Amino acid sequence: MNTLLLATPEQEEEYSLKFRNRAFLHIQDPAELKAWLPQADIVFDLFLHEQPERVEQYNQQGKGEKLTVFFDANGVDLAGLAAAYAPLNFHLVGLKGSPLFNRETIEVRILSDASKRAVDKSFVFLASLYKLV
Description:
Layout: E1 3-6, H1 9-18, E2 25-27, H2 33-36, E3 42-45, H3 54-61, E4 68-72, H4 78-84, E5 91-96, E6 105-110, H5 116-126, E7 129-132
Parallel strand pairs: 1-2, 1-3, 3-4, 4-5, 6-7
Antiparallel strand pairs: 5-6
């Protein structure tokens, strides 16, 4: 699975420690997303809560149902964010808790049961545990 990470260098370090041996492309400038998004299966966009309008970019340029986008949902109303850009044609998944990655089980929030299979597939690929909150 092609995985993109939009994050600070510090977040990238935490991510790479958690998901060792899983190839990913680290992007620090969201402008680079346009070039890489059409090939992505999984995106960890840790800037999305600051630039929610990028949800529309995922709708337009992503792989539709084959794309799963994880974002830092601490302090964000997931349903409200999704409703502002509805209908979504991809799986939007919120990461909860702190730290986001440096723990045994990652907490996630989904919009609907339809996203559970996409999250399952992502975490099987990442060889990591998660729980729905």
